[in-house]
Design goal:
The structure is a single chain. The chain is an alpha+beta fold and about 260 residues long. Helices cover about 15% and strands about 30% of the residues. It has three helices and eight strands; from the N terminus they run H-H-E-E-E-E-H-E-E-E-E. Strands 1, 2, 3, 4, 5, 6, 7 and 8 form an eight-stranded antiparallel sheet that branches. Strand 5 and strand 6 form a beta hairpin. Helix 1 crosses helix 2. The longest helix is centred in the middle third of the chain and has 22 residues. The radius of gyration is 48 Å and the shape is rod-shaped.
Length: about 260
């Protein structure tokens, strides 16, 4: 069969492939801290600029004093905390010790705390002398340990001096006034109501304290708090119940030291 010419076929265009359209992301997620583009919740990086969406929170700036050694924060959490606390305690103790050595008020406060926290014990003087005394009522009757005898001072201004063989910390003085501890007999004699307590220490310093005594029988405590005491003098300044033939009666004087 003879071959004849054939008209070439008309080429047809290729049909495009249809792809599903991606759903647009909802803009209700967190905005990007770098570009501000909204992102879906749960994304870690921005869909536009790929910047991290969740950045680590930066610590608050330290106060200036925490930036000074040894108070500055270390890189590792908690490191150096024990050292800082130890150094702080040592600094406070050093300041207190310096105040004790350099400031009289600091030393007085330190000794006063020791007086309150420590124990006390009675200490007896080696001897007692008086500037004047009524017959039968010597100065030694004021330190004999009983209250039914007394030192009788003829007039105001008379003094009783007690001397000690060793220096000690005088915490307090207890005075018993009057001829007796019985109320009726107490009123029948003269008794001091005001006096001066004069304390001498080993370095020759003299401390003087005005004392008001209640007009009733029984012990009356006078707080002192004086170190290195070697002698104590009681000078009578005022009295009640005075009359002819009535000496001013001091039944007993007791001294207490710190133990």
């Amino acid at each position: 069969m003879p071959v004849v010419a054939v008209q070439p076929a008309k080429p047809s265009a290729r049909r495009p492939d249809v792809r599903p359209v991606a759903a647009e992301e909802s803009p209700d997620g967190p905005p990007c801290p770098a570009c501000g583009t909204p992102n879906l919740p749960g994304r870690r990086f921005c869909r536009r600029c790929a910047a991290p969406l969740h950045t680590r929170e930066q610590p608050k700036p330290l106060p200036w004093w925490r930036t000074v050694w040894p108070f500055r924060r270390r890189v590792r959490g908690g490191s150096g905390r024990a050292l800082r606390r130890t150094l702080l305690v040592l600094a406070v103790v050093g300041l207190l010790f310096a105040g004790f050595l350099l400031l009289p008020a600091g030393r007085y406060l330190f000794e006063d705390v020791r007086d309150k926290l420590g124990g006390t014990a009675e200490i007896s003087p080696t001897k007692a002398t008086a500037s004047s005394q009524a017959p039968g009522h010597p100065a030694s009757s004021a330190i004999d340990g009983v209250t039914n005898t007394y030192w009788g001072a003829p007039t105001l201004g008379s003094s009783l001096t007690c001397v000690f063989d060793k220096p000690f910390r005088l915490v307090g003085v207890v005075v018993h006034t009057g001829v007796s501890k019985e109320p009726q007999e107490f009123r029948q004699g003269a008794r001091p109501t005001r006096a001066d307590l004069i304390v001498t220490t080993t370095d020759g310093e003299v401390r003087e304290k005005a004392v008001t005594l209640t007009d009733k029988p029984g012990p009356q405590t006078i707080r002192t708090g004086i170190s290195d005491v070697v002698s104590v003098r009681l000078v009578l300044r005022a009295a009640s119940g005075q009359g002819e033939g009535r000496p001013i009666a001091v039944a007993e004087v007791e001294f207490f030291k710190r133990t």
